[in-house]
Design a protein that fits this description.
- This protein is an alpha+beta fold.
- It has three domains: 87 residues, Integrase, DNA-binding domain (Double Stranded RNA Binding Domain); 93 residues, DNA polymerase, domain 1 (Orthogonal Bundle), CATH 1.10.150; 192 residues, Intergrase catalytic core (hpI Integrase, Chain A).
- The chain is 51% helix and 10% strand.
- The chain has 16 helices and seven strands.
- The chain has a four-stranded antiparallel β-sheet. Strands 5-6-7 form a three-stranded antiparallel β-sheet.
- A hairpin with a 5-residue loop joins strand 2 and strand 3.
- It is elongated, with a radius of gyration of 34 Å.
- The termini are far apart.
Length: 402
């Protein structure tokens, strides 16, 4: 006898599960906990099978009967409804795994597993999650070059040419990952080469006049702010290292006996370790600041926490307090200052480039430079520190004379 809505609604649970039949293989299973589950019993290839059709009242009686009838149509066509349901479930799962957002998340996880620099991972994550947000729910195989160009041009029109360029690159990396994992067959970003405007290069402002450099060093000496911030600026001048490397300097990286600071590969922009010879002046700065980091590993911790680095803009803010505008000097500018003046004084350009940890395009020269130039770089660093002292003194004499 077919079921009725009244009979289903008033079917009370018992100590054991029991069934209410609706006919033609459809029944309602009443569980002791009160749940009511639709089941369809059928035979396929001579074997009895049972498949679920959902729960009541989410699936009402009429819907359960429609699902049963659809299953019977499949059986009449020689198709197992249970296998069909499994394939549809697998297809739905595959569809989810094939959307851009999921693949992008896997790509980021791979970067982390490969120990890519945290700053690089964070930048790529931001590009993919924020700027590429319109692609997150899109099946990756359906994304076109025209669709990507529209997104990139929208970013470009906001004046963010560099971000548009970087986003195109990281989206291309996600597509290449999708190709090797058999979820895409081509990379639509390849067709966009030359389609974006070139980024406007803003070189980091730097003081390169020797008299002004001397005045700058005296201003840093007289800086009355947080001691680690003053030390950070002095070390930026003395070591030619990138501001991020200086802020992230660890006590474990400093070898006072050999006067060397070894920056590990994972913290370097070019992903290779870099030895920075320390002049006697740099060692003096480090020893003066050393007690400030006794409770942690960071040499230049933030004011409020020994486990946090100085903020990315800390040195630039200090320069502003000292009266230098962003058009005159920046924390990155210390590298340009050193490079310009050392080249003007006739030092070996290859040694200067090695000191700046620039990547040589020639792999043979790159290996040679790193292996051969350490003695030359050690001499260069000491002569640079001595020159800075000389420029300080010259500036002081000029001020007193005035």
């Amino acid at each position: 006898m077919p079921l009725t809505q009244f009979a289903i609604a008033h079917a009370a649970p018992a100590k054991k599960s029991y069934k209410l039949s609706d006919g033609a293989g459809l029944c309602l299973l009443i569980e002791p906990n009160g749940s009511k589950l639709w089941r369809f019993r059928f035979f396929f290839d001579g074997r009895e099978n049972m498949m679920t059709l959902g729960s009541f009242p989410t699936v009402p009686l009429a819907e359960a009967r429609r699902k049963r009838d659809d299953a019977k149509k499949l059986l009449a066509a020689g198709i197992s409804p249970a296998q069909k349901k499994k394939e549809e479930r697998q297809a739905a799962t595959a569809a989810i795994q094939n959307i851009f957002g999921v693949i992008a998340a896997e790509y980021i996880a791979n970067l982390e597993a490969n120990k890519v620099a945290e700053s690089t991972v964070a930048k790529n994550r931001w590009l993919l999650e924020q700027l590429a947000a319109p692609l997150a729910r899109r099946p990756i195989a359906e994304i076109t070059s025209a669709e990507l160009l529209e997104i990139l041009k929208r970013i470009e029109k906001r004046g963010c040419r560099e971000s548009a360029k970087r986003l195109r690159g990281v989206i291309g990396a996600v597509f290449r990952y999708a190709i090797v994992t058999l979820r895409a067959t081509s990379d639509p970003t390849l067709a966009l080469r030359g389609a974006l405007l070139r980024p406007i290069v803003n070189h980091h402002a730097a003081i390169t006049d020797e008299v002004q450099v001397g005045a700058l060093m005296r201003s840093i000496d007289e800086f009355d702010g947080w001691p680690t911030l003053r030390a950070a600026m002095l070390l930026a001048a003395l070591t030619m290292a990138r501001p991020g490397d200086i802020r992230g300097m660890r006590r474990s990286e400093i070898n006072f006996e050999k006067s060397v600071w070894r920056i590990p590969a994972e913290r370097m922009k070019m992903r290779r370790p870099h030895d920075v010879p320390l002049s006697t002046q740099a060692v003096k700065v480090l020893k003066e600041i050393w007690p400030y980091s006794e409770n942690g590993d960071l040499v230049l911790p933030a004011l409020r926490s020994p486990d946090r680095t100085l903020s990315e803009n800390a040195m630039n803010s200090a320069l502003r307090r000292m009266g230098y505008t962003k058009e005159e000097m920046t924390s990155h500018g210390f590298r340009s200052t050193a490079s310009t003046i050392l080249n003007e004084h006739g030092f070996n350009p290859d040694v200067i480039e090695a000191a700046l940890a620039h990547q040589d395009e020639d792999p043979v020269r790159r290996a040679y430079n790193r292996a051969t130039y350490l003695p030359e770089r050690t001499k260069l660093m000491q002569e640079w520190a001595d020159l800075l002292d000389s420029l300080r003194q010259r500036s002081a004499r000029k001020r007193h004379a005035a």
